[in-house]
Amino acid sequence: MIASPGDVQSERNIVREVVxxxxxxxxxxxxxxxxxxxxxxxxxxxxxxxxxxxxxxQILEQSDLLIAVFWTRLGTPTASASSGxxxxxxxxxxxxxxxxxxxxxxxxxxxxxxxxxxxxxxxxKKSCQTKGLYETYESPAQFHEKxxxxxxxxxxxxxxxxxxxxxxxxxxxxxxxxxxxxxLSREASELLxxxxxxGGDIMVLAFLGGSEVQTGGRNFVESxxxxxxxxxxxxxxxxxxxxxxxxxxxxxQVFRVTREGYDAADLI
Length: 268
Prior knowledge:
Blueprint: E1 2-3, H1 9-30, H2 39-42, H3 51-58, E2 66-70, H4 84-94, E3 99-104, H5 115-128, E4 135-137, H6 140-157, H7 159-169, H8 173-180, H9 186-197, E5 201-207, E6 210-215, E7 218-219, H10 226-241, E8 245-247, E9 254-257, H11 259-267
Parallel strand pairs: 1-2, 2-3, 3-4
Antiparallel strand pairs: 5-6, 5-9, 6-7, 8-9
Helix pairs in contact: 1-6, 7-8, 9-10, 9-11
């Protein structure tokens, strides 16, 4: 479920794009399809209860994952929460289901901001600091990249989704966990396992006429061999796309294995 106030429509569209990208890449191998849902596309007219209660019944209670996005507004209060989006988050988490929350730090014209809404949003954001981890972003492009990577990480490692696959397939946890690890090339698997065994860092150093991909005191690129350089630099890109490593410096010379990378290495 995509949850948000009304000032982040472009981000709602981006979440849908990312979900469709995931389906195009992973649906066949994972035997699973993600369906992006929201009140504007999946609610139907119904009388007899508060609007938010109807949305909760029609959409929220059927959803496995919630992605919430905020910018300058918290949203319209409901009978039981400071906003409809907040109520959706609270009920979703109370049901034991994962929620990914994002806050935009993009610039905004001050005269366009509702002060009451912004103060309510600030208070909610502060309350989230003691309840878990949230993510911030500065631009639509950065939001797209973070959601793309973190959605895959969540689906790969969150116990809720592993248990969901177990319940639907009747498989053992080990078999399901193995099935959800994306297939890696031989070189990427070797690079990941070596990095995990030697501290979790991978160095990518470019210089005139060549490059080095190092971990565990070993340079994997064969000197003077363009094919070797392409293979091992491609392996770094492959691991980063899967969310198994992430860059830890602006020059992208140092990559560190993520939690998902350690989990994947255990299963390779």
